[in-house]
Amino acid sequence: MRTYGQYCAMARGLDVIGDRWTLLIIRELLLRGPSRYAKLQRGLPGIATNLLADRLRELEANGIVTRNDGVVTLTARGHELEPVMRAIGRWGAPLLAQVTPDAAFQSHWLALPLQELLGDHAPTRPPQALEVRTGEEPLTVHVGHGKVRINPGRPDRPDAIIGGPVRLVLPVLAGRTRLARARVSFEGDRAVLRRLQPKAFA
Amino acid sequence: MRTYGQYCAMARGLDVIGDRWTLLIIRELLLRGPSRYAKLQRGLPGIATNLLADRLRELEANGIVTRNDGVVTLTARGHELEPVMRAIGRWGAPLLAQVTPDAAFQSHWLALPLQELLGDHAPTRPPQALEVRTGEEPLTVHVGHGKVRINPGRPDRPDAIIGGPVRLVLPVLAGRTRLARARVSFEGDRAVLRRLQPKAFA
DNA sequence: CAGCATCCGCTTTGATACTG
DNA sequence: CAGTATCAAAGCGGATGCTG
Lengths: 202, 202
Description:
The structure is a homodimer.
Chain A: H1 9-17, H2 22-32, E1 35-36, H3 37-43, H4 49-61, E2 65-68, E3 71-74, H5 76-79, H6 82-92, H7 111-117, E4 128-133, E5 138-144, E6 147-152, E7 160-163, H8 166-174, E8 185-188, H9 190-196
Parallel strand pairs in A: 4-7
Antiparallel strand pairs in A: 1-3, 2-3, 4-5, 5-6, 7-8
The structure holds a DNA duplex.
């Protein structure tokens, strides 16, 4: 952990979380919860195995994660990095407009952005679930009581399913493309999507 | 600019701002406004001159700064990084408790943290100014109309002046040490400090 | 097999010297 | 003042090997 040697809150913060890959490891733990080494590695395509081991050691030494028989867990202090990740994600989101065909993609990476983009626009209706099929694993959007919650995996009984390549699905969920015009697959109750993102119908 | 190659808002953001020194350059521009090369360099003790030149080129290429006859200015997109810097600063602030005698310090680095720590607890009274003398340059805290604004430099006519080493002054302004117990110098109207930080008297 | 450690070539960073 | 040039050191990425 190379330090900037500055008595400044931002520099001190970056001393701890500013190294390459460190914040992306935090991202994985925030989005997927406690994880084993191999699961982290799968969520971080491109990381060198020794780097992941190094970073986990540093994060542990800095009180950001703990490890118990191979399971890495964020500490309270680690969870406090969520606002940082949200701020970076919000700032970085416009960069997703840029097309790069060879970029890796995993659906759970959408969890934070989707939480910003979607809302419960019919909070009095009973809770519903939308299954999002993009990338390798499905993602579930739970909506109800005025809140939106996003989880990895498939819901027990989805009210609707939206599927297709990210670059088509994301604009629909962001409300920049209407569902009717997007070449994405949709099955089930359209009201779920309208509830989450009215602009998808406009 | 080495990229993570991930279609993820956070990774894309970090592709642009995640390199070493990049965010600290942004910090300088946020805190000090448009600056020339030499001024940036002074605010970034430890940076290598070629690195600063490299980073400024990248930041310009990414639309985060512009340059006109040697003056570097944040673009609108660059200013949008302020929430990111605030989040990192808020997270990093507790790390300032750790003592490192050889760390560099410049008073303007306190501007963002102080804005979080201080408030206008007497918004109906006329505006006042507190001069903070710590580090090499003085810092002015303007308070009035329910708001706190912090600027580099000395006010025309300060209502009060607080001075001393950062590690003594900061706890007072943070409300963790009472003024009477802190070995800091204080001249002028104590009401200004009470207005900004009531806990300094408790 | 999961969880690393080691080795190696390449890239980035840091320190210093120098220039229009 | 605002950089460029040079070079050593550190960090990173990829492959491979080891150990419970």
